[in-house]
Write a structure and sequence with these properties.
The chain is an alpha+beta fold and about 300 residues long. About 50% of the residues lie in helices and about 15% in strands. The chain folds into 2 domains: about 180 residues; about 80 residues, Calcium-transporting ATPase, cytoplasmic transduction domain A (Distorted Sandwich).
Length: about 300
Amino acid sequence: MSTEKKKSPEDSPSELKDHLAAKTEHVHEEAMTNDYNIYYAGGQEYYHESQGGYVGKGYGHYRMVIADFRKRFWGALVLTLPILVFSPMIQSLLGYQWMLPGNAYVLLGLSTTIYFWGGWPFLKGFWTEVKCSTPGMMTLTALAISVAYFYCSATVLGLPGGDFFWELAILIDILLLGHWLEMKSVLDASKALNLLVGMMPEKAHLVTETGIEDVPLKNLRRDDVILVKPGEEVPADGIIIEGEGFLNEAMLTGESNSIKKTTGDQIIGGSINGNSSFKVRVKHIGEDSYLAKVITRV
């Protein structure tokens, strides 16, 4: 039986920038899809049933999905306006009367369009969740709009009771708007994290017994000593063991002012050094680094 130990980013680290970039995209693909079991955009489905999950297609495809939610929201909102105008309940509340011939059937036709076109992502998500036996948010959403739609339709066809097509339309509008804004915010956060990944330098100045040697980040190990020169980005998390300096951590912590760091202080990989040099003992790399944890949590 093989006794080969599975390698981790710390045991045999890959190129840190590539690792973090891949992690950023993976985490945010997962964030975009955790809340929705399927998205439908531009005639393309993003759920791969044979694999039981999503297939990463890059941020370009997510932009297509975001654009599709935006288009459905604005289209549904336009159709909602006449529903509000010709709704008997709204007319009663505002004190006016303006009925069309077959007014109830006009409202039914407009609401049917909103339900099947505007609510299509939720209905597809519901069906996928049912097939995978994983009921979630899409199931609840589809159930809410479906009960409202079919009850209102039944009242038009003779069931005793009053319709509330305007409430159904507004509900779908709000759901589309919420999903559109949420996905857009996740994509924006992903772009910001990619900027953080880009702050990591390609090489580090490793302090050895024979002097200073420039090595790729993948060659760094915990407890290695590295030299950080003026104006450079810090290659890895660690503790200053010699020297001091002012570090700009604005992109990492939001602190706008440079912070003075002296011997014994912890520093974060990706922060920018000021005008002095210091030596750092590496403490966190790979999955254990501050930047990797930020990517995971965001």
